Amino acid sequence: MRIGYLVDTSGNQFELRLPIIEKPSRKLLNALKSVNNARRRQNLVELSLETFFPVTIIDVWNWKSKNDLFLEETKAKLLTLVKDDIESLPEEMRAAIKNLAKIRRTGLLKIWKLTIDAKDGKLIEIRRLLEDWKDIDLETLKKIKISSTHLINKRNKLYENMALWLKINFSYLIWEKDFSLKQIVESAPKISMNSTDVAIKIAAKYRFFASLHFLRQKLKQLDSNGWLIGGTMSYSTLRCYICNLIGKQTPQLHIVCPNGHKCDQDFQACKNLLSYLPEDLVFNKSESKPDIPAHLTKYIIKCSQIQPVMLE
Ligand SMILES: [Zn+2]
């Protein structure tokens, strides 16, 4: 996933990336294996999951939604189990069952607690059902927690390294000042977590996971002597950097202006932001090429020149 785009005064272009799928580290796998997995096979069958562990952020999302589904299925099973003799259940239990449609994990755990000392046959059946659910639910949540913590720490470490690389290699960094505002104005109506379109929903989840806010925080921490320059421009991605007219987005995230200049939207935003560099700061137009250290080569990609193309 592209999380940023960089163009310097020498014309070098870089794409900053946050990989969505990466080989899990041994450390993560060991941490996941350390979770009690005596029931692992049953767990996978019950949740119909294809992976042993949630190792990518996509796995984490899958595991979460499968676990939610498992909760709903358990509630349905519980209802079938008691529906013919609700009146014979203890009062507290009866009230909880009547409210079943609304309850989540905690509610279900409360019902389970009501069955702990049960001697009655029906309550014992309920207890068995809920204990099976609880074991799998707990193990699943533990694994999700381990993986998502690991993935977030890894992302944060990467952002720290990216910020350092930017600080070391560039004399100034111009960034979009009202970044969050820009997101709201230009992207929010299209990309929402509540969208019924699955692809858009996933895009929104990615964006949430990418947490550019954190990268920006890291950059801010490194700011000194006016290193960071805030640029604010309405429609910075949509404004054609050649003719200054406001263009339209295409499905490929290219922008086409009324004069037919077609341009990668992020490249365009960079070119527009570069105009914020005060005249007296324009220097070093040499052909310098910042080195990308080995640990960042997967995340900072040197791009070939993106040139605007004229549409036929
Ligand atoms: Zn144009």
Q: What is the gist of this entry?
A:
It contains 10 helices and 9 strands. With 312 residues, the protein is α+β, with helices and mostly antiparallel strands. A hairpin with a 4-residue loop joins strand 6 (254-256) and strand 7.
Average of per-residue pLDDT values: 84
Radius of gyration: 26 Å
Tally the helices: what do you get? 10
Largest sheet: 4 strands, antiparallel
- Outline, from the CA principal axes? elongated
Q: Strands across the major sheet, in which order? A: 5-6-7-9
The poorly predicted ranges are 184-189
**Could you estimate the helical fraction of the residues in percent?**
40-55%
Distance between the termini: 30 Å
Structural class by secondary-structure content: alpha+beta
Number of extended strands: 9
What's the domain count?
Answer: 2
Q: What is the H-and-E element order?
A: EEHHHHHHEHHHEEEEHEE
Q: What small molecules does the structure contain? A: zinc ion
Strand content: 5-15%
What does this structure look like?
The protein is of the alpha+beta class and 312 residues long. The chain is built from 10 helices and 9 strands. A 4-stranded antiparallel β-sheet has the order 5-6-7-9. It folds into 2 domains: 2-22 and 158-310, no CATH class; 26-145, no CATH class. Strand 5 and strand 6 form a beta hairpin. Helix 6 (121-169) runs parallel beside helix 9 (212-222). The longest helix is centred in the middle third of the chain and has 49 residues, at 121-169. It has helices at residues 26-33, 40-47, 57-82, 91-98, 105-114, 121-169, 179-187, 198-210, 212-222, 265-274; strands at 2-7, 13-17, 173-176, 228-231, 248-249, 254-256, 261-264, 300-303, 309-310. Bound molecules: zinc ion.
